[in-house]
Specification:
Elements (H helix, E strand, L loop, with lengths): L1 E4 L17 E7 L7 H8 L5 E5 L10 H17 L2 E6 L6 H13 L3 E5 L6 H11 L4 E2 L2 H12 L18
Parallel strand pairs: 1-3, 2-3, 2-4, 4-5, 5-6
Amino acid sequence: MIHIKCPENMSDFVDDGLPALTTTCFVAGGITNCPDWQTEFVCMMSDTNVVFFNPRRESFDITKSLSSKDQIAWEVEHLNRSEVVIFWFPEEGNCMISLFELGKTLGKGIPCIVGVEPGYIRALDVFYQLSMLSNQPMYKDLHSVADALHAYLGYKFNSSTHDAWSEEDFK
């Protein structure tokens, strides 16, 4: 497993290209005013042969336009390099950019796995978008997202939970 955090690039970690059977995965979702769930998620996947692209920087000044431009350029480049994208919408954020990235990813037909923490303000919107556009589950916790990525990659995992939202959860 390789964990590449913005502004790092793959060439910082791999000199002669990736080994065979390596999957690239973008870790999309809430950053601003959100806990560092990205590092937690990548740690859950330490048993895999995956290169994770993590857009969370150690420090980021959102008020500087050049910083935002560099951040967006890094994200676009690494989203385009990814074979699969995971999305996590934590309750603390509004995740406007992540919602845009989810729509773009679904529109391109790139495989994605989506999780929405209970309490996220746009959970119902994400649920309906997923059910109408891709008929795929929306998971309730980060462990279930990790389980789903393990399954997508063909790994065996020992979790007994695979907790997905249903329409009944919104009534």
